Every structure is written in C-alpha cells, then in structure tokens.
Amino acid sequence: MTERFTAQQRLVVAIAVLGSFVSFLDGTIVNVALPAIDRELGGGLATQQWVADAYLVTLGALILLAGSVSDAFGRILVLRWGLVGFGVASIAVALAPSAVFLIVARAVQGAAAAFLVPSSLALITSTIRGSRQARAIGVWTALTTSAMVAGPLIGGLFVDHLSWRFAFLVNVLPIAVTLWLLPRVDARDRRVPGAKIDWWSGSLCTVGLGLAVFALIEEPNAGWGSPLVWAPFAAGLLLLGGFVWRQRVAASPLLPLGLFRIRNFSAGNIATWFVYAALSLNGFVIAIYLQQGAGLSATLAGLASLPTTILMVALSSRFGALSGRIGPRLFMTAGPLVMAAGSLLFLRIEPDFDYWWQVLPGMLVFGLGLSITVAPLTAAILGSVDASRSGIASAVNNAVSRIAGLVAIAAVAAAIGGSLDLDGFHRSAVITAVLLAAGGVAALIGIRNAPALTPGPGPGPGSGSGSGSGSGRS
Q1: 210 and 89, same structural domain?
Q2: 3-class SS at 427?
C-alpha cells in the first residue's frame, strides 16, 4: 500500500514545485512569444536565439555554483534568494524597451533561476525518504515538466490577447505564494562551517559558455572564417577547459569530478544531455514554425502542445512510482525511443497544414514518451549519490540539461540551413529523433537498476533535474 505524505511533506513538495515551476515555465513560455518580440523589437532569428539562450547561458553556467551554495548555506535561504531575484528580473523583462535590454534582463533572470531548481529539489531529497521520496519526485517532475510544456500555451494567450510582456509577469504570483509558504516549513537549514565557494570556477564557466554560444549563434551570419566567430569560440573552449582543469585542483570544486565515477550518475547525465538537447530544439522550432510557417496564432500554437501537457500531468508520477519499484533502466530506454517516434511523426506536416492529422499524433506519442522518461531519469541520477551531496548533484544534472538545450538552440540556424521553412522544420524533426534515440541507447548501455534500489543511509530513489530538467525541465 502506498504511504501517504504527511502535512509537512505535502508542504515541502508544494514549495519545491512552485519554486521550480517559474523557472521551467519561463524557459519555454518565451518560445511562443519570440515572433511577437521580433515584430516589436526587431533582430530576426539571431535575436530570437539570444532571447532564448541568454537565459540558458547564465542558468546553465551558474547552476553548479548555486548547487554548491545550496549545500553549504542551506536550501531554504538559497531558494528565497532565487525567488526574489527571479521576480525582479521578470518585471525587468516585461518592461524591456529594446532587444539588448531584454537579452540582458533574460540573462539576469537565468542567473536567478539557477538558484531555484537545485535548492527546491534538494529540499525534497533532504526531508523525504524511502518510497515517499520517489512519489514526491514523480509529482515534482510531472508538474515542473508540464510547466515546460504548458509555457507555450500560456504565452500564446498573453501574446494574442494582451502583450508578450504580460507573459513574463505571470511569474509574480507563484513567487509570492512560495515566499509566503517558506516560513511554514519545519525543516531548518544546516550550514556547513567554514564552507568556501569557488567563484573563479563560476566565472570561467559563465564566460566560457557565453563566448561559445555567441559564436554558434553568429556563425550562420558571418561564417567560421570570421574573427567574430572563431575567436570567441576558441576563447570559450579555452575557458571551459580551464574550468575543467580547476575542478581537478580546487579544494572545493563546483563540479566534483568524482561524482562521474558513479555509474548511474554519469550514464544518467549522458542520457540527459541527448534528451534535453532534443526537448529544447523541439520546443523552440515547433513554437516558431507553427506561427511563422503554418500561420497559426500564438494561442493556437500554444494549444498544439496541450496533449503533451495532459499526458505529463496524468502519467509522470505513475511512471515515477513504477521506476521506484522496478528500477529506472527500462523507462529511461523506452521513453526516449517513444519520443523519437513522435518526433518523426512531425514529418507528416506539409504545406497544406492540418493539425489533427499532421501534428496531434506526434504530440500524443511524444507526450507519452516524455511521461515515461522524466521521473525515472530524475530518480536514477540522484538515487546514486549521498543525500549530503544532493544539492550539487541536482545542480550538475540541471546544468547538463540546460547547457544541452542552449547549445541545441544556438546551433539551430546552422543545423536547419539558416531558415525555419518547412524543409528546415523537417530537418529539425529528424535531428530531434536522432538525439532522443541516442539518449535511449545511452540509458540502455549505462544505467543499472541495483544502485537506485539498494536500501541504505542514502536518499533512496533520488532526485535530479526534471529538466529538465526536466528536467527536465523543462
């Protein structure tokens, strides 16, 4: 018989969901707003890429730093910082007078989001144990990942009936509710005496990623022969190499490389890279093409993903519970392969557009695969690490998913041939399917059930990124 959550555990889950929800929601709500942003502020595909990637660069680069801060100074404190910063940045995004201001505000928003996801999820892993933890992660994964999928619908409604600016103000209410609930949690932060944070590593990772992503976005316009492209790309790779080197010699590294000696942790993050690169590419391309290519309104483009959202909410926690009982390997293998089949169904989209025949089947199959994948993926990764390292391990998994997403979006113009026409859309569907299949194969080869199911002093079936996350995420 399934154990029920206590009142405090329900409160912890609610706070974790709300705290992460705004980050996952905002990561995708922007996709459907991009055409409207382009019409008002200008800049074309490159500006659209930067509006999406500025958020992902700082989120992906700083989430490791946030995980270390969360473990050292306490989940609740870090979560509160992240919520306040995210709320202020969301207001700045909504008031942006120019594309440059908007991109900078999105970067600040991503930096604040970096402190939300690992601290909120680590709050679950540090306060809920055993079979309830797997259920809690399933609920967290279902609701936060559904936020990633519901974002285009919410954004579409605001774009069509008010303004794209209001789509970013929707964050304020859940942030206020979460801040109101936080003092009601019985759990208290445990700070590590004398804890030190490696700010140099954070700087190397942030600047290195920013330069590399800049080069990927600008390459279709200037070409690899341009110093504007190869110079920042080379500098970015050098800085990222310096970041990895520093993790080997620093006394308190942001990225404990020893974690990757844990089989399920390393294999799970490889699978995460492929799956979340595919999710980000799929969400970015579909939201834009359905408006600019198929001629749908922003609301209808958002509604296109509703079947996926419904399946996520209905099924994700159930697959999370099943994974907790029989192990994650089967689900982490089958889920991405089902999603890959759903992505290939989008090849049915033709100039004579018909949502019900050309889009809906792919959305349903994709949503089923996503529901199968995300909770077991989340549980497998942190189920392999000790609870005391749940913050940094969650942050690593989130960083992997976010960086995979930003690289996929940064490279989209080169991958689809520089234009998001029907041919470009079909190419992106094939690339998405290949990435997802690679994620399934990585899980099949690398994941083992025993580490996630072995009872002991650790966190039990653990947590990771829904991001997305999912993971996601999202």
Answers
A1: no
A2: helix
User: Is residue 13 included in any domain, yes or no?
Assistant: yes
Confidence of residue 455 (pLDDT cuts 50, 70, 90): very low
Q: Pick from 143, 136, 34, 55: which is nearest to 473 by CA?
A: 143
Average pLDDT over residues 213-234: 79
- Could you give the CA distance from residue 372 to residue 12 in angstroms, rounded to a whole number? 24
**Residues 6+ positions from 445 with CB-CB distance below 8 Å:** 267
CATH number at residue 161: 1.20.1250.20
Mean local confidence (pLDDT), 170-192: 77
**DSSP assignments along 357-426, one per residue:** IIIHHHHHHHHHHHHHHHHHHHHHHHTTS-GGGHHHHHHHHHHHHHHHHHHHHHTHHHHHTS--SHHHHH
pLDDT tens column, 99-112? 889 999 998 998 88
Give the model's pLDDT for residue 288.
80
Euclidean distance between CA atoms 1 and 391, whole angstroms: 30
Q: In this structure, is residue 466 part of a structural domain?
A: no
Shared domain for 260 and 333, answered yes or no, is yes
Number of other CB atoms surrounding residue 360 within 10 Å: 15
The radius of gyration computed from the CA coordinates of the chain, to the nearest angstrom, equals: 20
Cβ pair 23, 170 in contact under 8 A: no
Give the residue carrying structure tokens 């730093």. Answer: 65
Is there a domain that residue 105 lies in? yes
Which is more confidently placed, 93 or 313? 93
Q: Is residue 193 part of a domain?
A: no
Residue 116 in contact with residue 19, Cβ under 8 Å?
A: yes
- CA 395, 396, 399, 400 dihedral sign is negative
CB 106 within 8 A of CB 406: no
Report the C-alpha gap between 426 and 344 in whole angstroms.
9
Q: What residues make up the domain containing 285?
A: 7-187+254-453
Q: Which tokens hold the place of 437? A: 């299949």
- For residue 469, list its beta bridge partners: 471
User: What is the CB neighbour count within 10 angstroms for residue 26?
Assistant: 27
471 phi, psi to nearest 5 deg: -145, -60
